[in-house]
Amino acid sequence: PLQLLWINLVTDGAPTVALSQEPPHGRVLDEPPRPTNAPIIARALVFRIAFVALFMAAGTIGTFLWTWVHGDLAQARTVAFATMSVFQLFNIYNTRSLTDSVFRIGLWSNRWVTWGVLFSATLLIAAIHIGFLQTALRTVPLTLGQWGIVVLVSSTVLIAEEIRKWVAPGLFGLEISNSRETARAPVRVR
């Protein structure tokens, strides 16, 4: 339970706050306002969240099982914790725009997000390699090879979302607005 709190509060905290400094992309002010009866979270966004969540869950479970087979349970738990945390750090770049590639926007264009990710990554490394944090979070040190697997697997969420944005921005059959703030179903006129 403490590891989940760490991921939700510590790993996600700084990058999420940094997203508030994200400049608008495209022609956000030219878009019409959302209808007053539109849901707060549109169906397109729910499907996108589910896609990313399942992707992250599969990667985390995969790294856990791989490490457990080749190591021990404590290492496997730590690798799973690190994988889920690093998935979140890569995914913060996906959330900068629902449809625009982070590489078109500029991977480093929001320096606050970059600093937030670096800060959270540093705290994650501390949680896994500093004694009193290891005790509190029940982690064990990871090898460089294990860290490599964590980063490699976790980076796939960025790649998968970039492919989705490029190949099928409306993958789930719903229009996703060009702005990063909204996702909405097509408006039906009666």
Model description:
The protein has helices spanning 2-18, 43-70, 73-94, 102-105, 111-129, 131-137, 144-167. The protein has 190 residues and is mainly alpha-helical. It has one domain (1-15, 53-185). Helix 1 (2-18) runs antiparallel to helix 5 and helix 5 (111-129) crosses helix 6. It starts with a helix and ends in a 23-residue tail after the last helix.
Main sheet summary: none
- Compute the number of helices: 7
Average residue pLDDT: 86
End-to-end Cα distance, whole Å, is 50 Å
Fraction in helix: 55-70%
Strand content: under 5%
As a whole number of angstroms, the C-alpha radius of gyration is 18 Å
Oligomer: single chain
Structural class: mainly alpha
Number of strand elements: 0
Low-confidence stretches: 173-190
Task: Write the H/E string, N to C.
Answer: HHHHHHH
- Choose one word for the global shape: elongated
Number of domains: 1
Keywords:
190 residues, mainly alpha, 64% helix, disordered C terminus
Task: Describe how the helices and strands are arranged.
Layout: H1 2-18, H2 43-70, H3 73-94, H4 102-105, H5 111-129, H6 131-137, H7 144-167
Helix pairs in contact: 1-3, 1-5, 2-3, 2-7, 3-5, 3-7, 5-6
Summarize the structure in short.
This protein is mostly helical.
